[in-house]
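Support request, please re-run this one:
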Amino acid sequence: MTTFNARTRSLWIALAAFALVGFGAFMFPAFIIRPFRYQNPRTLLWAMAMRERAPLVTLLCAMVCLGIAALLWQGSNKWRKGILAALAVLVTFSAVMSRVNYFEWMFHPVDAPKFEAESSSKLGGDEMILAVQYGPDARAYPIREMAYHHILNDVVGGVPIAVTY
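Re-run finished. Output below.
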C-alpha cells in the first residue's frame, strides 16, 4: 500500500509541475508584453523566446497532464476529480491560446480613424503627436491614442499609409 501512495503522490507532483510549466509558457509572454507598461529589454527577449516555443511546450505539457489525469482519475474522490478536471481545462486552454495571436486583441490596429478640425480638437498644447503630411493633406495622431493601438491605417493625400508608434 505504501508504494501505491508514493506512486500516487509522485503522479500528483508531476501533474502539478507539468501544469505549471504549460500554463507558465502561455502566461509569461502575455504578462510581460502588455500595453502601458515598461518592458525591460532582457525580460522582453525572454518573453519573445518563450512565445516562440510556447505552442510546442504547452502541447507537450497538456498531453502529459491529460495522461497523468487519466491515470489518477480512477482512484480519486470527487474533490480530486474536480482538481484533475480544472487542471486539464487549464493546460488545454494554455495549449490553444499559445497558438492564437492574442496580442492582436491588445494592440488592435485602427482601420477607420476619425478626425476633427484643429479648431475643435481637444488636444492640449503640450500633448505629443505624430504628424504626417503628403502634398496638401496632413494628419496629426495623438501619442496617447497611438500608445494603445500602436498601428493606424489611413490614407493621406490619396496614398495608403500605416502609422505606428
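The chain has five helices and four strands. Helices lie at 2-32, 41-73, 78-97, 103-106, 143-149.
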